[in-house]
């Protein structure tokens, strides 16, 4: 049996569309299964990215993670970088300033407690991400790449054999009946394969409902854990508020400048009480000890020697401001691989801008990514 070529199939299909010639019709049940299969395919294409967006809502971070993942694969590194949860970022901020205020401060200790609780919430969210990917996203992607791909292949093959059968049927008399019969048998075989594949797909609705239930259970477990963590935090914080409210209030005691000077022993004076006026002897002693000193300028030879031996300043050691660069407004500690750390006041050479929030730069021979809101651009990158 000789099957017509793709060019002839395309010609026949175009002729059917233009002239309104009807080809061999398929039964309504088959067409209904084909419609539902097509909807399932579109659903997965739309549902998977939106589910990932629900778990990781920041598109800039997602792009950054994809870039870091690509770089890791190129370098042969297996370590994966996790998505920075917003609860974890807020918790790190609270822990940082809580440590600076100190645990002896009521507010500082409360910041430490809440920061640690938010870090636990972020860990629970990471667990939810892993669970949703395993129980919901991965099965849908497997369905898309295997079964739906196979069904699409059978449907394309079916359409080609239908066109071949219709072409030979219309040329009856010029083409042997045996050829037409063989074309019809091939057409029926492809229809049976496509119909069986779509039937098996649509009959497994229970399996996909279980995947949806897995998504629901993962989200509910995350919210239960978060609620439990935050309830414990609320009880502890309310208890600390009550204890702090019951503490006796301290009164502000003003100290005069004279009192401050008297209590300082760097001048060699004895301690005096607040409000004591300095006597004449003390004033004269201060005048003699801190009398202005007359400095005579050195000769030219001395000046030349001092100028020659003067070390270079720290500013001269920095990179010349003749290329794109920026100055750090705050210190930045890298949290992920590929990020560039620096300290407040450092001058960073700009090499490229990843997006409106992240740039790539270099300092002290090290290159990496850093956030734009931590720096002030001195010389911008060329457009």
UniProtKB/TrEMBL annotation:
Membrane topology: Peripheral membrane protein
Keywords in alphabetical order: Coiled coil, Endocytosis, Membrane, SH3 domain
GO biological process, one term: synaptic vesicle uncoating
Record localization: Early endosome; Membrane
Major localisation: other
Keyword Cytoplasm: no
Top-rank taxon, per record: Eukaryota
Every BAR domain range: 15-246
Matching SMART domains: BAR, SH3
Gene Ontology CC terms, in alphabetical order: early endosome; glutamatergic synapse; membrane; presynapse
InterPro entries, alphabetized: AH/BAR_dom_sf (IPR027267), BAR_dom (IPR004148), Endophilin_A_SH3 (IPR035824), Endophilin_SH3RF (IPR050384), SH3-like_dom_sf (IPR036028), SH3_domain (IPR001452)
Keyword Zinc annotated: no
All copies of domain SH3, residue ranges: 321-380
CDD domains: BAR_Endophilin_A (cd07592), SH3_Endophilin_A (cd11803)
Coiled-coil residue spans: none
Similarity comment: Belongs to the endophilin family.
Protein name: Endophilin-A3-like
Source organism of this protein record: Sinocyclocheilus anshuiensis
């Amino acid at each position: 049996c000789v099957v017509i070529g793709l060019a002839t199939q395309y010609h026949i299909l175009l002729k059917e569309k233009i002239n309104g010639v009807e080809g061999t019709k398929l039964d309504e049940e088959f067409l209904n299964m084909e419609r539902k299969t097509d909807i399932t395919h579109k659903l997965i294409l739309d549902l998977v990215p939106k589910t990932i967006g629900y778990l990781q809502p920041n598109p800039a971070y997602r792009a950054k993670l994809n870039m870091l993942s690509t770089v890791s694969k190129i370098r042969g590194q297996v370590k994966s970088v996790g998505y920075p949860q917003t609860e974890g970022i807020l918790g790190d901020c609270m822990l940082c300033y809580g440590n600076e205020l100190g645990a002896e401060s009521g507010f500082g200790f409360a910041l430490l407690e809440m920061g640690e609780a938010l870090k636990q919430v972020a860990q629970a969210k990471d667990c939810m991400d892993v669970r949703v990917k395993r129980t919901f996203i991965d099965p849908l992607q497997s369905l898309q790449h295997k079964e739906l791909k196979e069904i699409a292949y059978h449907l394309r093959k079916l359409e080609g054999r239908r066109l071949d059968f219709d072409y030979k049927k219309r040329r009856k008399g010029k083409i042997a009946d045996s050829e037409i019969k063989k074309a019809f048998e091939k057409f029926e075989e492809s229809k049976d394969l496509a119909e069986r594949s779509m039937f098996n797909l649509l009959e497994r609705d229970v399996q996909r409902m279980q995947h949806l239930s897995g998504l629901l259970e993962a989200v509910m477990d995350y919210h239960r854990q978060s609620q439990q963590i935050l309830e414990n935090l609320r009880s502890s914080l309310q208890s600390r508020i009550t204890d702090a409210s019951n503490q006796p209030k301290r009164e502000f005691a003003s100290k005069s400048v004279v009192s401050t000077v008297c209590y300082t022993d760097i001048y060699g004076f004895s301690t005096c009480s607040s409000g004591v006026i300095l006597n004449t002897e003390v004033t004269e002693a201060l005048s003699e000890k801190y009398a202005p000193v007359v400095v005579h300028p050195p000769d030219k030879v001395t000046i030349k020697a001092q100028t020659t031996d003067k070390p270079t300043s720290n500013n001269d050691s920095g990179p010349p401001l003749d290329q794109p660069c920026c100055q750090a407004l705050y210190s930045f500690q890298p949290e992920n691989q590929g990020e560039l750390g620096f300290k407040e006041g450092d001058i960073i050479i700009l090499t490229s801008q990843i997006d409106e929030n992240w740039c790539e730069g270099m300092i002290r021979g090290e290159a990496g990514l850093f956030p734009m809101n931590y720096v002030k651009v001195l010389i911008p990158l060329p457009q």
